[in-house]
């Protein structure tokens, strides 16, 4: 294997099921910056997936019977191990996913923060006593773990999207079978190594790799699985939701976005540019909360475009492991083709290229950070998530027009706007049809806040005290004859 690590035992080429490392590598994992083969992973079949679910079911009684404090202490050790191995984990992440190493280190810290937060929150899954409707009875509400949880996670955040699901699940007393993205399974397997070292008992956290259709069919069809938590495309989310319907599983769906970023004429333009850069070009634009449409009020549009162009010129494209690089490669050829398609379509429909617009000279899946001005709702980039380093500038005249443009999409994950007007901040914040709003900031992600969307961006919330609610069932006990 080709990733140099201080602790080489973090690199695994087997699945982790019932506390055992199983399977033989048959699928290649490659570096998107070089196309070099990094490692191999097994293709677990239906029977193997079923075995993982059964292991999770068998581990459930003992895990949920532990006190919240006991589960919390194990999660604390897992958190500390992530921090202790931050550099190695970041290196694995960058090699298989592509993002700049500094960003990967940030993701490991972010991933660890969910384990710390939910380990603490385990102790605060409070019930309720409701004043009764009868003198001789008492009404008590308790919260219990939902049971075996299946998680399917994407390649864009190979660590954080896992811990954001696994930490609340384990904290609540659930067990889990995880299928990470096939392009980025090595980080997931390294997290399993550390879970084992932290003392997570066998069967509580299982990782299976292989065909998403095969594994997904078993995870969604098996009645032992009581909940599915998915992060990925809206299209796949809808398929999985339908597959879960016959067994009526609880669902958390964190799906695609089409984030508007509104710059009002009264905004601090330098701050707005900084926010746009952070949000648009984070992970080379491959984040569901990345800005997809930048709406700029007409009076300040030329100045904003000039400042954005100057800021984009400072971004450095290259392999994520190289010092000073801010923009790694896109995940694969398909991702580059989508950006190319959006650029060509926008230019054909009257857009103006301000920066970039092409594959980078480095080849592979590197793409130049790009800006197109004069964008309109007829363009593909207005409707679809580009999921790449393309900043699309639209014009508007009034606040009403900006809000209408921002809401003209069937998805609603995040939205951002810049203004100095306090009344407008409330008005627009309340009017945007999204689950998360950044006001005078382009970065909204934190373990302490509820992350999630409305409309076709999905359901459920991850992070914050709300994040653990998705992993418990409410039961009401009516105690009569008192
Ligand atoms: N909300 C978000 O954070 C994300 C949004 N996206 C959006 O989706 C687009 C496509 O990206 P893509 O990677 O294809 O996203 P997908 O939704 O296809 O993949 C996300 C996860 O779902 C799995 N998966 C795919 N198909 C199935 C299935 N039929 N049954 C069960 N699991 C399945 C994948 O497995 P496998 O890797 O094995 O295919 C992966 O683990 C992006 O361009 C972007 O617009 C993508 C990633 C994250
Ligand atoms: O779904 C995603 O694209 C990951 C969101 C990362 C974040 O928490 O900001």
UniProtKB/TrEMBL annotation:
InterPro entries: Ald_DH/histidinol_DH, Ald_DH_C, Ald_DH_CS_CYS, Ald_DH_CS_GLU, Ald_DH_N, Aldehyde_DH_dom, Aldehyde_DH_Superfamily, Succ_semiAld_DH. One of its GO terms (cellular component) is cytosol. The keyword Oxidoreductase applies. GO terms for molecular function: glutarate-semialdehyde dehydrogenase (NADP+) activity; succinate-semialdehyde dehydrogenase (NAD+) activity; succinate-semialdehyde dehydrogenase (NADP+) activity. CDD domains: ALDH_F5_SSADH_GabD (cd07103). Belongs to the aldehyde dehydrogenase family. PANTHER family: SUCCINATE-SEMIALDEHYDE DEHYDROGENASE, MITOCHONDRIAL. This is Succinate-semialdehyde dehydrogenase/glutarate-semialdehyde dehydrogenase.
């Amino acid at each position: 294997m080709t990733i140099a690590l201080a602790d080489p035992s973090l690199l695994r080429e087997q699945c982790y099921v019932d506390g055992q490392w199983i399977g033989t590598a048959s699928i290649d994992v490659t570096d998107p910056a070089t196309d070099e083969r990094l490692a191999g992973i097994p293709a677990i079949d239906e029977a193997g997936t079923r075995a993982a679910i059964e292991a999770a079911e068998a581990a459930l009684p003992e895990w949920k019977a532990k006190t919240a404090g006991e589960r919390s202490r194990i999660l604390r050790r897992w958190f500390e191990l992530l921090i202790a191995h931050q550099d190695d984990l970041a290196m694995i992440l960058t090699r298989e996913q592509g993002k700049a190493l500094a960003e990967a280190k940030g993701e490991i810290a972010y991933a660890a923060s969910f384990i710390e937060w939910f380990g603490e929150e385990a102790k605060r899954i409070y019930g309720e006593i409701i004043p009764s409707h009868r003198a001789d009875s008492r009404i008590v509400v308790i919260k219990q773990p939902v049971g075996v949880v299946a998680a399917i996670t994407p390649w864009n955040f190979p660590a954080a999207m896992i811990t954001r699901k696994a930490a609340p699940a384990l904290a609540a007393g659930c067990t889990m079978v995880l299928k990470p993205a096939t392009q980025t399974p090595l980080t997931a397997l390294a997290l399993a190594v550390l879970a084992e070292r932290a003392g997570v008992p066998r069967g509580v956290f299982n990782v299976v790799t292989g065909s998403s259709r095969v594994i997904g069919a078993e995870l969604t069809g098996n009645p032992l699985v009581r909940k599915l938590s998915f992060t990925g495309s809206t299209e796949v989310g809808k398929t999985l939701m339908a597959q879960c319907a016959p067994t009526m599983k609880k669902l958390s769906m964190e799906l695609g976005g089409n984030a508007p970023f509104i710059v009002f004429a009264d905004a601090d333009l330098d701050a707005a540019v900084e926010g746009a850069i952070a949000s648009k070009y984070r992970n080379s634009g491959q984040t569901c909360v990345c800005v997809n449409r930048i709406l700029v009020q007409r009076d300040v549009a030329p100045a904003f475009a000039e400042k954005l162009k100057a800021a984009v010129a400072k971004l450095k494209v290259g392999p994520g492991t190289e010092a000073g690089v801010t923009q790694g490669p896109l995940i694969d050829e398909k991702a580059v083709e989508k950006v190319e398609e959006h650029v060509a379509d926008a230019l054909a429909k009257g857009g103006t290229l301000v920066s970039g617009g092409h594959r980078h000279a480095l080849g592979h899946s590197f793409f130049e950070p790009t800006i197109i001005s004069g964008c309109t709702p007829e363009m593909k980039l207005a409707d679809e998530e580009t999921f790449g380093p393309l900043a699309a500038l639209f014009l508007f005249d009034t606040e009403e027009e900006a809000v209408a443009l921002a809401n003209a999409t069937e998805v609603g994950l995040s939205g951002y706007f810049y203004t100095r007007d306090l009344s407008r901040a409330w008005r627009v914040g309340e009017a945007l049809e999204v689950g998360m709003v950044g006001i005078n900031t382009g970065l909204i992600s934190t373990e302490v806040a509820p992350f999630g969307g409305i409309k076709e961006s999905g359901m459920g919330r991850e992070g914050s005290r709300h994040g653990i609610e998705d992993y418990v069932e409410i039961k009401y006990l009516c105690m009569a004859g008192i």
